[in-house]
Please model this.
Amino acid sequence: VQKLFVFSGLHDLGKVAVPREILSKPGPLDGRELALMRSHVEIGAQIACAMEIDPMLQDIIAHHHERWDGSGYPHGLASEAIPVAARVVAIADSFDAILAKRSYKRAVPFDEAAGIIVAGAGTLFDPMLIRAFERATDDLRAVHEGTSTGHLLSKIGTFT
Model:
């Protein structure tokens, strides 16, 4: 669990190669820009591989945009073919993105954001991990509101 906590913060390593104008663009990305943005996964995976870093971190970087139903990228992996650490980070990354105000979107309120994540069970996200997410909702709310008194991952326990 500790490695997952540390490694999750490095999931977007490949964004170092994405132009700042694309990362902060206030509107929708065009086809070329979207391709460049999506390339961060493969660039990050190449960096991780070249650095010979922990295989769990390589999995997270390379597969955190894969989707349970196979609709993700870069390889269209589905269900159990997606490494479990990448499945966990996909949920956390998506939840964070929904909650955050960005140059191109408003911040979504906590309950609405949690509902969007739960609605993705079985299509975007591993249904078993979504059950763990639901069990952790009160702790996630405390972290989001800045009232947490402990380490969230230690409170979740097992992901099953």
